[in-house]
Design goal:
Helices cover about 35% and strands about 15% of the residues. The chain contains eight helices and ten strands. Bound molecules: 6-chloroguanine.
Length: about 250
């Protein structure tokens, strides 16, 4: 996957190469990341990339000519790439969308700055718009890095042998079960016995149930949108009975 980022701050993207899985994916050529400076495509001698908005108002708008030049340059080099603009008005980026993107040979990610980008850019030169959440950033750069990170870890081989994207939160549709490592006892808190039992069936059932309980408590909305396994329904039914017994006990006692 070739990521081409169009930005006024190309140096920000060196942060992705400091270490970890993204750096390794670049070194093994599973991905490439090229940050292109939109200012290089300014059409005047002073490198001006923004201007005052027509109709008045505060803030500056990114001019269309430098952006169009940068996008056409990137598309010429990567004709197969899908072009996405990072903007708070975009479709909410989630794991389902992250899973669709490794299907493209390349992604061209356009980072807006200032108060916005001239509307004619997204109309004519962009395939889609993405937002990473309902809050406002000073620019699309951090959002582009979020997209690069989330997509790269789904590219086959990127996570390395022992890790798997299949077991993650959101891939199972549930939050991840609690993890423990040595020591067995840390500041008086013990690792659950089942994890030391060597009984892989029991461990796998415990983990699934821990995921269900954690999701129920922290993100109940996720349980409504997911197909559950038959064993899950038995477990939830058992929880329901426990809860009903407790409620009845306390309401008749009072
Ligand atoms: Cl993609 N850009 C900006 N500026 N703010 C955002 C965003 C993007 N996603 C959430 N907030």
């Amino acid at each position: 996957m070739d990521f081409t980022v169009l930005t006024l701050f190309p140096e920000m993207f060196s942060a992705l190469l400091v270490g970890g899985i993204i750096k390794r994916a670049v070194e093994s050529r599973r991905i490439s990341i090229e940050a292109i400076d939109i200012r290089d495509f300014a059409t005047d001698r002073h490198g001006i990339v923004d201007d005052r908005p027509y109709g008045g108002g505060c803030g500056m708008v990114m001019k269309p000519e430098p952006l169009a030049g940068a996008i056409r340059h990137a598309k010429k080099r990567h004709p197969e790439a899908y072009t996405l603009m990072l903007t708070p008005q975009g479709r909410l980026f989630d794991q389902a969308l992250a899973r669709e993107l490794p299907g493209y040979a390349g992604l061209i990610l356009i980072c807006g700055r200032y108060e916005g980008v001239d509307e004619r850019i997204s109309q004519d030169l962009v395939d889609g718009e993405l937002s990473i959440g309902d809050y406002v950033l000073t620019g699309g750069e951090l959002a582009a890095m979020v997209v690069i990170d989330a997509v790269t870890r789904l590219i086959p081989g990127a996570l390395g042998g022992e890790q798997s994207a299949e077991e993650d939160s959101f891939s199972t549709g549930l939050l991840e079960y609690p993890q423990y490592t040595r020591p067995r006892s840390f500041e008086g808190v013990h690792v659950p016995d089942v994890l030391l039992s060597g009984d892989h069936g029991a461990i796998s059932r415990w983990r699934r149930q821990a995921s269900l309980i954690r999701t129920l408590l922290k993100r109940p909305d996720l349980l409504l949108g997911q197909p559950l396994r038959p064993g899950d329904m038995e477990f939830l039914e058992k929880l329901r009975q426990h809860i009903e017994t407790i409620i009845e006990k306390h309401s008749t006692a009072s």
